Every structure is written in structure tokens, then in C-alpha cells.
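Exam revision sheet. Question 4 asks you to relate a sequence to its structure. Input first:
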Amino acid sequence: KMIKTVDNLKEIEPLLQKYLKSYKTNDPYEKVIIYSKEEIIGILSYSIIYERGEINYIVTIPEYRNQGIGTALLKKALEDIKELGCTTVSLEVEETNQSAIQLYKSKGFEIKATRKKYYGNHDAYLMIKELR
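Answer key, C-alpha cells:
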């Protein structure tokens, strides 16, 4: 297994579009970390906005879920974000996604607000983690 940061997002764009239909590589501040065996099986994207990191998404290919891949990607992202001088990290998560919410809580994120209809018919939680 290997976790690494991708420099050229264009090379993974087709895979991202398969799992995130509306994905476009247009954020100049976006950084992507991949988890791979023979092929890419997990992806995490984050952006740096001044002193704050923002987790954009974590995707694990369905047959590899619940094997610690999302946890490993999140751990690496949090290390990188802290190293880049950020003091907080935020993300939005669909309120029905209990496995993701539990993962984020286990890493020190706290629910700070609810964003109504953020995901169409579903609300999202704004979760924040202070980096110390």
C-alpha cells in the first residue's frame, strides 16, 4: 500500500469523475492524497484557505471500504495541513453519513453547525477540528 500526494490532478480526474459526478479540477489550492495498491483505491482532497484547511472529500472505492483507508488518508491530510501552518480544519458531511461522522469525531472533529439542504434534500453538518 502506498499513500502519496498527487501533483498532477488531471491524471486522476477520470477516476474522480466516476465517483464524484460533478468533479472538476479547478481549485488552484486543492491538494489530493491517494491510497493505492495496484490501482488507486482511496482519494482525499483538501484545500488550504489562509490559516484553515478544508477537507473537500474522501472517496474509497466500494469494495475497499471499512478497511482503514479513509482513516489513513485523513491522518496524512491532517499531518500535511498542520505542517502547512493551519490552525483549524473544517468539512461538511451529510447528516445521514454516520460512518463518516464517527470517523471524523474519532479524529477530534466536532459538529459546529447544520447547513440546511446542503446536499439537495439532505442537511450537512459543519465539523471543525482545532490543530494544536
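Marking note for examiners. The longest helix spans residues 69-83.
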